[in-house]
Amino acid sequence: MVWLLAIPAILLGLLLLVAAVPFHARATGAVHDGEVSGAVWIGWGWGLLSVNVAAGGAAVRVAGVRVVRLDGRRGGKRSAPAEKERRDAGGERWAGRLRRSVRARRPLLRMAARLARALRLRLRLAGSLGAGDPADTAALVALARLLEAVPGVELPLEFDWLDEVVELEAEGSARIWVAELAAAAAVLLLERENRAALRVVFS
Q1: pLDDT tens digits for 133-176?
Q2: Fewer CB within 10 Å, N or C, the chain?
Q3: pLDDT: is 13 or 148 the higher one?
Q4: pLDDT recorded at residue 174
Q5: How far is the C-alpha of 149 from the C-alpha of 23, rounded, in Å?
Q6: What burial letters (b/e) apply to 182-202, b meaning 16+ CB within 10 Å?
């Protein structure tokens, strides 16, 4: 009976510990000539437990000692027509969400700024972007200008108004304190205007 009571107590203690001790994350990435590359590091307990993820695989370390390694493997290649169809469908969905995001920009910007402060966000995205359609590129420019107002975000971008272009380099970092992030998200979702803005974007 004691063990049955101890198990939920231990689980609750672990959950409280995870919520009380922050995660730290760093990431770099790039898109060049259609090829995506990047790496992510996530640490908990000031590096006591960490995970590195890159194109070559992933590694888990405890107190700096690697305990698990997973090799990255590429899945089967899609045929060119299937890949193009998937990419075009995804582009149409994101173009629609982009335009809706610009329309709901005020509450979205407030939410982004609040969450960025909670995360101690630092993000820099540089390079060239073009949607292949001037109207979609204009929406992209408008959204980028709004995001530049978010604390910790830098977007030294150039825009191509005629062609579809994605040439980017990114680097960022954040401190993820679960308790603070959950509280900030809960407060934001209590506001009807914020919930309406999210429905507009993701509907």
Answers
A1: 888 888 888 888 888 888 899 999 999 998 888 999 999 999 98
A2: N
A3: 148
A4: 93
A5: 25
A6: eebeeebeeeeebeebbeebe
Q: How many residues does the chain have?
A: 203
Average pLDDT, the chain: 80
Q: List the structure tokens of 186.
A: 């809960």
pLDDT tens track for 62-110: 887 788 787 765 555 544 454 445 454 445 566 666 666 666 678 888 8
Contact 75, 113 (CB under 8 A): no
As a three-state string, the secondary structure of the chain is: CHHHHHHHHHHHHHHHHHHHCCEEEEEEEEEECCEEEEEEEEEECCCCEEEEEECCEEEEEECCEEEEEEECCCCCCCCHHHHHHHHHHHHHHHHHHHHHHHHCHHHHHHHHHHHHHHHCCEEEEEEEEEECCHHHHHHHHHHHHHHCCCCCEECCEEECCCCEEEEEEEEEEEEECHHHHHHHHHHHHCCHHHHHHHHHHHC
Distance CA 127, CA 31 (A): 9
